[in-house]
Write a structure and sequence with these properties.
Layout lengths: L13 H10 L3 H14 L2 H14 L15 H6 L30
Length: 107
Amino acid sequence: MMMTTEKVYKWSNPQEWLQQYIDGLSYSELLQEAKNLASMLDADQIQDAYQSDMDAQGYFKEIGKCSCSHSDWQHAREGDARLEAEDYEIGQCYVKDCDCYEFDGGD
Protein backbone atom coordinates (compact mmCIF):
# COMPACT_ATOMS: atom_id res chain seq x y z
CA MET A 1 0.00 0.00 0.00
CA MET A 2 1.35 3.40 -1.03
CA MET A 3 1.18 6.25 1.44
CA THR A 4 0.45 9.77 0.27
CA THR A 5 1.97 12.65 2.09
CA GLU A 6 0.37 16.04 2.29
CA LYS A 7 2.44 18.79 0.79
CA VAL A 8 3.39 21.64 3.06
CA TYR A 9 4.32 25.06 1.74
CA LYS A 10 5.91 28.09 3.33
CA TRP A 11 2.75 30.19 2.72
CA SER A 12 -0.79 28.93 3.06
CA ASN A 13 -2.12 31.03 0.17
CA PRO A 14 -1.12 33.70 -2.36
CA GLN A 15 -2.47 36.53 -0.18
CA GLU A 16 -0.18 35.48 2.67
CA TRP A 17 2.80 35.43 0.31
CA LEU A 18 1.89 38.87 -1.08
CA GLN A 19 1.52 40.38 2.39
CA GLN A 20 4.95 39.13 3.39
CA TYR A 21 6.42 40.28 0.07
CA ILE A 22 4.96 43.78 0.58
CA ASP A 23 6.36 43.97 4.10
CA GLY A 24 9.87 43.66 2.66
CA LEU A 25 9.54 46.47 0.09
CA SER A 26 10.92 49.98 0.41
CA TYR A 27 8.55 52.92 -0.07
CA SER A 28 9.53 53.47 -3.71
CA GLU A 29 9.32 49.74 -4.46
CA LEU A 30 5.91 49.59 -2.77
CA LEU A 31 4.68 52.55 -4.80
CA GLN A 32 5.84 50.93 -8.05
CA GLU A 33 4.29 47.59 -7.08
CA ALA A 34 0.96 49.30 -6.30
CA LYS A 35 1.02 51.00 -9.71
CA ASN A 36 1.78 47.65 -11.38
CA LEU A 37 -1.10 45.97 -9.54
CA ALA A 38 -3.46 48.84 -10.42
CA SER A 39 -2.65 48.43 -14.11
CA MET A 40 -3.75 44.78 -13.90
CA LEU A 41 -7.20 45.65 -12.54
CA ASP A 42 -10.16 46.61 -14.69
CA ALA A 43 -12.41 49.59 -13.95
CA ASP A 44 -15.03 47.51 -12.13
CA GLN A 45 -12.46 45.88 -9.85
CA ILE A 46 -10.99 49.26 -8.94
CA GLN A 47 -14.42 50.76 -8.28
CA ASP A 48 -15.49 47.72 -6.21
CA ALA A 49 -12.43 48.09 -4.00
CA TYR A 50 -12.27 51.90 -3.77
CA GLN A 51 -15.79 53.25 -4.41
CA SER A 52 -16.13 55.08 -1.08
CA ASP A 53 -12.67 56.68 -1.48
CA MET A 54 -13.45 57.64 -5.08
CA ASP A 55 -16.73 59.20 -4.00
CA ALA A 56 -15.07 61.11 -1.13
CA GLN A 57 -12.51 62.56 -3.57
CA GLY A 58 -15.20 63.69 -6.03
CA TYR A 59 -14.61 61.07 -8.73
CA PHE A 60 -18.34 60.84 -9.49
CA LYS A 61 -18.94 64.62 -9.48
CA GLU A 62 -19.43 65.93 -12.99
CA ILE A 63 -16.80 68.51 -13.89
CA GLY A 64 -18.04 71.94 -14.91
CA LYS A 65 -21.52 71.37 -13.56
CA CYS A 66 -22.85 73.01 -10.45
CA SER A 67 -25.33 71.08 -8.34
CA CYS A 68 -26.41 74.09 -6.26
CA SER A 69 -29.40 76.34 -6.84
CA HIS A 70 -27.45 79.54 -7.57
CA SER A 71 -28.18 81.09 -10.93
CA ASP A 72 -25.43 81.86 -13.47
CA TRP A 73 -25.62 85.59 -12.67
CA GLN A 74 -25.05 84.83 -8.96
CA HIS A 75 -22.09 82.71 -9.87
CA ALA A 76 -20.51 85.55 -11.84
CA ARG A 77 -21.58 88.46 -9.61
CA GLU A 78 -20.47 86.88 -6.35
CA GLY A 79 -17.39 85.28 -7.84
CA ASP A 80 -13.89 85.51 -6.45
CA ALA A 81 -12.42 88.96 -7.21
CA ARG A 82 -9.12 87.33 -8.16
CA LEU A 83 -10.73 85.84 -11.25
CA GLU A 84 -11.07 87.87 -14.41
CA ALA A 85 -14.45 87.93 -16.14
CA GLU A 86 -13.23 85.67 -18.94
CA ASP A 87 -12.15 83.04 -16.37
CA TYR A 88 -15.75 82.35 -15.32
CA GLU A 89 -17.35 79.23 -16.72
CA ILE A 90 -21.12 78.99 -17.08
CA GLY A 91 -22.39 76.41 -14.60
CA GLN A 92 -19.37 76.64 -12.29
CA CYS A 93 -20.23 78.00 -8.84
CA TYR A 94 -18.15 80.93 -7.57
CA VAL A 95 -20.33 81.75 -4.55
CA LYS A 96 -17.83 81.38 -1.69
CA ASP A 97 -20.28 80.07 0.93
CA CYS A 98 -21.76 77.47 -1.42
CA ASP A 99 -20.94 73.77 -1.04
CA CYS A 100 -20.13 73.72 -4.77
CA TYR A 101 -17.56 76.51 -4.54
CA GLU A 102 -14.19 75.48 -5.86
CA PHE A 103 -11.25 77.75 -6.51
CA ASP A 104 -7.85 76.38 -7.44
CA GLY A 105 -6.00 79.21 -5.69
CA GLY A 106 -4.32 80.45 -8.86
CA ASP A 107 -2.64 83.84 -8.97
